[in-house]
Write a structure and sequence with these properties.
Membrane topology: Multi-pass membrane protein
Number of helices: 8
Radius of gyration: 19 Å
Structural class: mainly alpha
Number of strands: 4
Organism: Velamenicoccus archaeovorus
Function: Catalyzes the transfer of the diacylglyceryl group from phosphatidylglycerol to the sulfhydryl group of the N-terminal cysteine of a prolipoprotein, the first step in the formation of mature lipoproteins.
Order of helices and strands: EEHHHHHEEHHH
Helix content: 55-70%
Protein name: Phosphatidylglycerol--prolipoprotein diacylglyceryl transferase
Distance between the termini: 68 Å
Largest sheet: 2 strands, antiparallel
Keywords: Cell membrane, Lipoprotein, Membrane, Transferase, Transmembrane, Transmembrane helix
Length: about 250
């Protein structure tokens, strides 16, 4: 579509990279504003977001390279060319969560509370990033007479990236509207909704192949994360359930 915004002898500005940057900046701005309202130190939360972003990008790239090594084996240097695209959200999410837990433990901050703080804006950042995928031509849909022509692929394809972005915006809006949850439950809902959204989106994607029983590897990961989301939600509810006042 339009993978390059500007190019000269000295540098090239890639659309995908710009949208990843926009996603991070918008999410960081909104999270730190909300953090201040909830009594968190915005500077600490900002550092947390930067730390998890770096960890997330690294793990997202590693995940993509491992799953698509045939693309990199002819030219291993392509591994470091992130501006060409090639990040797996699930890999980034898992890596960011693991690193985030370590950061929050070191700072003695509530993991469930910070996870809930970030949950809606993770979905928003995903939505913005998918627009970058559309312009980059990656994460494309199946061939369709009702689709759009993608020059990089030389054919008409279903614009799955746009549907992906819109459905993630719905997840963002739903999480922002939910109130009165116990600490940790909102993040559990995010895991479940985002996993369900990705599971369904895979049926529209044209760049993924079945991995087992007709489902792609990302659909299997989605099922695992959806289950994890239900467990997180249930455990959060059980942990904060008020003890009964009735006599035994």
């Amino acid at each position: 579509m339009a993978p390059v915004i500007y190019s000269c002898r000295l540098f090239t500005i890639y659309t995908y990279g710009v949208f990843v940057a926009i996603a991070f900046l918008v999410a960081t701005w909104l999270v730190t504003r909300q953090a201040a309202r909830l009594g968190f130190d915005p500077e600490v939360i900002g550092n947390f977001l930067i730390f998890t972003l770096v960890c997330g990008i690294l793990s997202a790239r590693i995940f993509y390279v491992v799953l698509n090594w045939s693309e990199f084996s002819p030219d291993p240097l392509e591994v470091v060319r992130l501006y060409h695209g090639g990040l797996v959200w699930y890999g980034g999410l898992i890596g960011a969560m693991l690193c985030g837990v370590l950061f929050l433990k070191k700072k003695h901050l509530s993991i469930p509370a910070v996870a809930d703080l970030c949950a809606p804006y993770l979905a928003l950042a995903q939505a913005i990033g998918r627009i970058g995928c559309f312009f980059n031509g990656c994460c494309y849909g199946k061939p369709s007479v009702h689709g759009l022509f993608f020059p990089a692929h030389g054919r008409v394809l279903f614009p799955s990236q746009i549907v992906d972005a819109l459905s993630l915006l719905f997840v963002y809006a739903a999480l922002r509207l939910i109130r009165g949850q116990k600490p940790g439950q909102l993040f559990g809902l995010y895991l479940f909704l985002a996993a369900l959204q990705r599971f369904l989106m895979e049926f529209l994607r044209g760049d993924e192949r079945p991995f087992y029983s007709g489902l792609s590897i990302y659909q299997w990961i989605s099922l695992g994360l959806a289950t994890a989301g239900i467990l997180v939600y249930t455990l959060a509810f059980a942990r904060h359930k008020k003890p009964s006042t009735k006599n035994a």
